[in-house]
Amino acid sequence: MVMDKTFWQKIKKPIIALAPMDGYTDTAFRRVCKQVNPAIVVFTEFTSADGLSYGAKRLKEKIAFDPSEQPIIVQLFGKKPEKFVEAAKVCEAMGFSGIDINMGCPARKVLSSEHGLALRKDPDMACRIVEALANATKLPVSVKTRLGWNGSEDLSEFAQQLENAGANLITIHARFFKEVRYGPVDYEPVYEMKKKLTIPVIGNGSIVSLADGRAKLGNLDGFMIGRASFGNPWVFSEQDSPKTFAEKVPLIKKHIDYLIEYKGMRSAMFEIRKHLLAYVHGAANATHYRAKLARVESPEQAMAILDQIATE
Hints:
With 312 residues, the chain is α/β, with parallel strands linked by helices. The protein is built from 14 helices and nine strands. The chain folds into two domains: 230 residues, Aldolase class I (TIM Barrel), CATH 3.20.20; 66 residues, Orthogonal Bundle (Non-ribosomal Peptide Synthetase Peptidyl Carrier Protein, Chain A), CATH 1.10.1200. Helix content is 44%, strand content 14%.
């Protein structure tokens, strides 16, 4: 796929995206979501720009993707512009559709390294990273950040600086640092920020359906769905979602197959357990089967349990 800096401007609006979530949005889950709605844009789990700049095999495997996932955006974190530039070369060679810079992760470990949301306190460095990356790659460069630490007074100014530095799109998680993922969201500052920019803006935070995303859209160009997709990739469906668990089983089985293809049997069976527990939430007699699903050791075992639940 040939990409250029105008990608985010040209893409059909509203943009609907699968949010980058560490530990969840690997290639298997992204492929499942794209099966439901091929038009969505998917993001990788956040990945170290430093590690990619050194050509770390493990990290390249982490962000590996199937061609069916296009357009796919790789999300990087770090604090050194030169490392982002080197990482961009790797991402270009791998065929990504764009590069997103994580300036919103509130995890203590990330903040202690001056990555993620820490860059909101260092606008000069944030802009240096964007500018270096924008000048070094043909791919569109975007930024995902938050309202701020405890207030959003500087949000519009920060976003304008990022745009001037070369950002082609900005995503705002409509929460502050202290609220992490579970506090109330406030989209009003995001709408105000959008008025000051010429580049597209995506909203993120507590969006639970396509209808909810469109209701929260306002003057924004798109929205991301994150946690609401756990166990429910059908959240991206423009059609009616499955009415019965039996209707969900074929896609769940594909998820298992994709994980085995990506991670190998042993790792896949460990990884799929958390997804299976999420998939059966709300299913008939789910409690009876949860303990079994939490210990599955083979695809045959997992699929047999799924078939049993489907007949309840």
